[in-house]
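Data card: per-record layout.
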Amino acid sequence: MDIRNLLFKYRSYTPIPIGLMIIYFARPGSAHLTLGIPLLLTGEVMRIWAVSYAGGETRTRRVGAPALCSSGPFAFVRNPLYLGNMLMYVGIVLIAGSANVWLMVATTLSFFLIQYSLIISLEEETLTLLFEKEYEEYKSNVPAIFPRISRWDTRDNIRPSNLIKTLKTEKRTLQNVVFILILIYLRIQVFY
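The structure for this 192-residue chain is written out next.
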């Protein structure tokens, strides 16, 4: 089996070792809350914005899409969910603190950049097969991870879902964030 398929299929679970590492090395004295909290919130807002456009298809375990979404945040970056995840995890690292917090940030970013580069290559192969020239044009105008400054002028007229529907789709991510923050708090309060 292609490792990229495996990473895509289990992308909700592959960050567990990173989460455990963050919890284990958490040190309150080195927390950077003024940077960590805004990064965490920015990442989650980005995810909510992206899910409002892409919908529940973002939770699939099979590579593909019923339609090419290039509006909303997808007009700035092709993978706003992955960018949101990276911002959230870096925010969590900074909130947790560590004896060497910047090494933890670098490790976390490296993990996600490697994983997402593999997953993105698989997704792009599939989307090129599905949407051909439309996807090639999109790909040539919108970067994969680091957003454009200005919105790409897309012909996509997808409208965002309402907030309640979006939050229902995003519920598991929100629960996981709360869970890891509780574990960090308990680690610091009980074992520090």
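Known properties of this structure: The CA atoms of residues 94 and 119 lie 26 Å apart. The first helix runs from residue 3 to 9.

See the next section for split statistics.
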